[in-house]
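Weekly structure sync, notes
Attendees: PL (lead), two postdocs, one rotation student
Agenda item 3: pending single-chain targets
PL asked that the sequence for the first pending target be pasted directly into the notes so everyone works from the same version. It is reproduced below exactly as submitted, 82 residues in total.
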Amino acid sequence: MLWTLLSSAIVAGIQRSPHFAIGKISGPQDLGLYVLAMDLGTMPTTELAAPVNRSAMAGYSRLTNDPAAFRNVFLDVGSMVA
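Predicted structure, written out during the meeting:
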């Protein structure tokens, strides 16, 4: 439990380190523009991939006994999202 908390804190710190640097160097206005641009840039991927992955999980669970079919479906879903 402690290791999970520590690991999550380290990952969060690494992911947020650009925010701290930009906020310190350029100020809050540039940080706000950076965060807005990052959110807008990742929005198409996150808004598309999350629902597709949620619905694909049901199909993946049905293919646990057929690795070849699972691989094909997994690659099809991945290529569709890409």
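Discussion points:
- The mean pLDDT is 89.
- Residues 28-62 form the longest helix (35 residues).
Action: rotation student to compare against the earlier draft before next sync.
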